[in-house]
Amino acid sequence: MSAVFKREFKAYFTSPIGWIYLAVFFFFAGFYYYAGTVVSATATITPVFNAMQTIVMFLIPILTMRLFSEDKKQKTDQLLLTAPVGLTGAIFGKLLAAYAVYCIGFSVTLIYAFVTESFGAIEWSVFFSNFVGILLLGLALISIGAFISSLTENQVIAAIGGFGVMIGLTLVDVLASVVPWEWLSALIKKISFNTRFSDFSQGILNFADIIFFLSVFAVFVFLTVRVFEKKRWS
Questions:
Q1: pLDDT band at 233, cuts 50/70/90?
Q2: What range defines the domain where residue 57 resides?
Q3: What's the 3-state SS for 120-151?
Q4: If 0-12 CB within 10 Å is exposed, 13-18 middle and 19+ buried, where does residue 118 land?
Q5: What pTM, to 2 d.p., does this model score?
Q6: Residue/partner pairs of 108-115 with CB below 8 Å, 24 or more apart
Q7: CA distances, 152 to each of 28, 97, 149 (Å)
Q8: Angle separating helix axes 193-201 and 46-64, nearest 10 degrees
Q9: Structure confidence at residue 234 as a pLDDT band (50, 70, 90)
Q10: Which of 112, 120, 172, 195 is the most interior residue, by most CB within 10 Å?
Q11: Which residue has the higher pLDDT, 121 or 130?
Q12: Are the C-beta atoms of 148 and 69 separated by less than 8 Å?
């Protein structure tokens, strides 16, 4: 798995994808830190996390569009089926490479936190819960993007499909608000990524929210494995 991880991680920075992702990420993170923390003179990084929660939904398809579609295009996806670490291990290696780039982006919030602390007492418990929440959110979103990438050999289609799903995820709360039946509205909110993240942004580590994001990750990893297993037996 480590060999797959190293190869994929390196590929992000031998191509423009990793650099473009981080450049756009750092631009928006810096903007929201300045607008939400520096200008308002508050000792909190929560505005950055709240804003970036939405921004990464549209950035992650850039990270995941090539994960499997490139292999399918180059006809090297068969190597996943014969990898020494096994199919699941190879898929995990690819996912972790994308996740590592994602984490590099959010590492900048640690710098923001220490800078903010030098000007006023920051609520570290709230920062920690935000950080945990954003890491779990990324894990879930990357698994979704990877699954979409496994369905096509065209990176552009994988990216467009990813954007479409991410837009759908951001509209779940809107759907919940217009549904006339309260029981259905409550049910829809339970699968809302925004609603699930809201507790983290308030400094609350809710076990149900943690399980939700981990479950989404597990489900889409399973589905991705099934895509390649189906090809093995076809």
A1: low
A2: 2-233
A3: CCCCHHHHHHHHHHHHHHHHHHHHHHHHHHCC
A4: exposed
A5: 0.92
A6: 108/26, 108/29, 108/30, 109/29, 109/45, 109/48, 109/49, 112/29, 112/33, 112/37, 112/45, 112/48, 113/45
A7: 30, 20, 6
A8: 140
A9: low
A10: 112
A11: 130
A12: no
Phi, psi at residue 135, to the nearest 5°?
A: -70, -40
Beta carbons of 192 and 184 less than 8 angstroms apart: no
Q: How many residues does the chain have?
A: 234
Average pLDDT, the chain: 89
Task: Give how many domains the chain has, as a whole number.
Answer: 1
Residue type at position 117:
E
Which of helix, strand or coil describes residue 233?
helix
CB 117 within 8 A of CB 193: no
- d(CA 42, CA 20) in angstroms, rounded, equals 30
**31's tokens:** 């903007």
Distance of CA 147 to the CA centre of its chain: 13
- Judge whether residue 123 has pLDDT over 70: yes
Q: Residue 100's pLDDT band (boundaries 50, 70, 90)?
A: very high
